[in-house]
Specification:
Largest interface: A-B, 76 and 72 residues
Structural class of chain B: mainly alpha
Shape of chain B: elongated
Shape of chain A: globular
Distance between the termini of chain B: 56 Å
Radius of gyration of chain B: 23 Å
Order of helices and strands of chain B: HHHHHHHEEHHHHHHHHHH
Oligomer: heterodimer
Strand content of chain B: under 5%
Order of helices and strands of chain A: HHHHHHHHHHHHHHH
Number of strands of chain A: 0
Radius of gyration of chain A: 24 Å
Largest sheet of chain A: none
Structural class of chain A: mainly alpha
Helix content of chain A: over 70%
Chain lengths: 361, 360
């Protein structure tokens, strides 16, 4: 994800760190890693108790459909009639073993659901990030360089517009334009029925369709998978592209005003190089820091995008389980996404620390 | 989504973090001392956040700010006068002559057509403004009060309470807004929606999400102000803690809040729409909600029925755009690096006149 831009950067500072022993990078990484634990603990606790305020999941899911005796029987069988604290400790213990419970509506282990559909969500977020980078960073550079001129004004307004449009509305407009008025792209699912059939036959699948398609060497399927990914990726990517654009612009304006840029210019370095290298590199750190937040946001955005495009990932399942009022599954997916977000933020902070030796505790 | 997040997306974060990195480029956190002096001389009206920003702005920035204000004004007018503007009720399926009919294309009777459920699209979009404004007001005001109060107390008193609150706020802050709002909606209403229950649940869900944002900003400011000489002198004079927090620190720590307020409003609308889109909206019989309408319009799109989705969608975009433009312009005007200066002539002239007045 963010590795794409961080890798060339990471090389030099790492060497610098090695030269100065005891500068505390290792310690920083360790502390930052340990900080994930309370975060995840608080979030899972919060989610657990919030989800139980209104009652047990079985009554919520099947309340209207069973008689009172049947309901009480099923509640007792699942152990939901025990004191809430006992259930809480059991739940946390199960979580530590990777057991997220069993769904009420279709009786599947939640962990199985997470593993099956998680890859699709990650794949979507990955595509969307590529779209966001391709649009956001170069245009942010242009906006900063042409500050307060027409291109800047137009780009900034477009960026705000991109932010103001809910992902699902952007998705619906894209579906309308490229699926109905000018039907050139598929608007639903991760592939045609044939592709899905081929994918279900893949031995030991990674469930990342793009990887699986390459592994089986079927380029027709690969093309189909990519075609299906275009619209969802653009819908989700546009939102983040706007944010990246503004971030790059604000931070580049800060660095472009520095004296070393003028000195570089006087040495005859091309304007293009000044913007894309000299000014951009120092501006990268705040950008990467905010990127962690962006990935968290994209996961939430993915929930809505998946529903819009029937992209069968975690978000799509989440919406399905919400409709079915299956709160065990909902809780599992929400906690799982929270854990992913916590780890992403950790990774981003570590990358930022690698690039900038000033970021330390 | 949607669940986009002005604070999180970095509109406000970017300058802050940038200032850390490029401290020499932009010293100070927001309003420079000169502006403070100017402020003291202006009337209370000119010191109001938006009015002062409007006077400060020029060119494109001014255009953006005014466009934003006009859009916000339009939404407010629609919300307040919905019964007068909308030709039909939000839950009206027909007149005495019979039902409207479902998915009728735009016509003279239904200028924006009708939905699958047989409602008038135009009326529901107008009534939707009322729901949106109600939710924003409840959500933002509630989170403002709770977040500011907690931030002041936590920042000033410090200790174990502070530590616990910070850890919780950080954990909640890092959580995707929409997911937290979803969990809150389940907790508050069990996923059910009733008339005002739906609005209250949506508003409260959003409140919880936003408290950490106000909390963080106010706490950070409080920590900074605590060390200022005027607070120390107040302590020496024997002022009570309540008085110091409520008067000395509160007045100074809340200066950046209008900005967060506007940015949060736009996010509150997006979160509400996101909740509605996932089916946690308010039932069509109890109020109109744009996200819910878009959810119902999703299957229409593939059959070429565009009016059921385009209009409510545009309503969301324009409302969010309005609030974002206002917030964004205020953000730029507060950041000295991004503020566009007035043309040198007028600026110098005005400043000179002011200086002369000050001397007199």
């Amino acid at each position: 994800m963010s590795a794409a831009i961080s890798q060339p950067e990471a090389a030099e500072p790492t060497a610098a760190v090695k030269k100065a022993p005891g500068s505390g990078l290792g310690r920083y990484v360790l502390i930052r890693f340990l900080l994930i634990i309370p975060t995840i603990f608080i979030l899972t606790t919060l989610v657990f108790f919030l989800m139980r305020i209104t009652g047990d999941p079985i009554t919520a899911a099947l309340g209207g459909r069973l008689t009172r005796e049947q309901l009480a029987e099923r509640v007792a069988a699942a152990g939901y009639d025990r004191p809430i604290l006992v259930q809480y400790f059991e739940y946390m213990g199960n979580l530590l073993r990777g057991d997220f419970g069993t769904t009420v509506s279709d009786g599947q282990p939640v962990t199985e659901v997470l593993l099956t559909y998680g890859a699709a969500t990650v794949e979507l977020v990955f595509y969307a990030l590529i779209v966001a980078f391709i649009i956001g960073i170069p245009f942010g550079m242009i906006a900063a360089y042409k500050r307060d001129k027409t291109p800047d004004a137009v780009l900034r307004i477009l960026a705000i517009l991109g932010y103001a449009t809910p992902v699902f509305f952007a998705g619906m407009i894209l579906k309308l334009v490229f699926g109905v008025f000018w039907p050139i792209l598929p608007v639903a699912g991760r592939g045609t029925t044939e592709t899905e059939y081929i994918m279900s036959g893949v031995v030991d699948p990674t469930r990342f369709y793009i990887i699986d398609a390459i592994r089986i060497g079927n380029f027709e399927v690969l093309g189909d998978v990519l075609a299906h990914a275009v619209l969802p990726a653009v819908a989700l990517g546009i939102l983040t592209a706007g944010v990246f654009l503004r971030l790059v612009r604000t931070n580049l304006i800060g660095t472009l005003g520095q004296q070393y840029i003028d000195s570089g210019r006087s040495r005859g370095i091309s304007e293009f190089r000044l913007v894309t290298k000299h000014a951009y590199r120092p501006a990268l750190i705040p950008i990467i820091t905010v990127m962690g937040m962006q990935i968290a946001l994209m996961l939430a955005g993915a929930v809505l995008t998946e529903t819009t495009f029937e992209w069968k990932g975690l978000g799509f399942k989440l919406a399905e389980y919400l409709t079915a009022r299956d709160f065990v599954a909902v809780q599992g997916i929400v906690v799982f996404l929270a854990v992913i977000v916590a780890f992403t933020n950790f990774l981003v902070d570590v990358i930022a620390a690698f690039i900038d030796p000033r970021v330390r505790y | 989504m949607s669940a986009s997040h002005p604070e999180k997306t970095g509109i406000t974060e970017a300058p802050e973090s940038a200032q850390e990195t490029f401290a020499e480029a932009a010293p100070g956190t927001g309003v420079p001392a000169v502006v403070l002096d100017e402020k003291a001389k202006k009337s209370w009206f000119n010191r109001l956040p938006i009015v002062s920003h409007l006077r400060q702005s020029v060119g494109l920035q001014r255009g953006m700010l005014i466009t934003g204000l006009v859009l916000c004004g339009l939404v407010l007018i629609c919300a307040v006068f919905a019964p007068l503007i909308a030709p039909y009720g939000y839950n009206q399926l027909g007149t005495s002559e019979g039902n409207f009919g479902a998915t009728l294309p735009p016509s003279a009777e239904h200028i924006w057509g009708t939905t699958v459920g047989g409602y008038d699209v135009f009326s529901r979009v107008i009534w939707g403004a009322q729901t949106a404004v109600a939710v924003i007001v409840v959500a933002v005001v509630a989170s403002l009060f709770l977040g500011v109060a907690l931030g002041l107390i936590s920042g000033y008193l410090g200790g174990w309470l502070d530590r616990i609150l910070v850890v919780i706020a950080d954990a909640v802050y890092a959580f995707p807004t929409l997911l937290l709002a979803l969990v809150m909606a389940i907790a508050i209403s069990g996923g059910q929606s009733s008339a005002w229950g739906g609005i209250a649940a949506a508003a409260l869900s959003i409140t919880v999400v936003f408290i950490p944002q106000y909390f963080r900003v106010v706490r950070a400011e409080t920590l900074r102000l605590k060390a200022e000489p005027f607070v120390e002198s107040a302590i020496v004079l024997g002022a009570s803690k309540t008085r110091i927090i409520g008067k000395h620190i509160f007045r100074n720590a809340t200066r950046t809040l209008p900005l967060i307020f506007t940015l949060n409003s736009s996010e509150a609308i997006l979160t509400l729409a996101g909740l509605g889109f996932l089916g946690f909206g308010i039932e069509p019989t109890s109020a109109a909600e744009w996200g819910y309408d878009l959810n119902k319009a999703l299957p229409d799109v593939t059959s070429g029925v565009w009016w059921t989705s385009v209009y409510p969608g545009l309503a969301i975009v324009l409302t969010v755009l309005g609030f974002t433009l206002v917030g964004e312009s205020m953000n730029d005007l507060n950041d000295p690096r991004l503020r566009v200066r007035r043309k040198a002539k007028t600026k110098a002239g005005a400043a000179g006149a002011r200086d002369r007045k000050a001397e007199a």
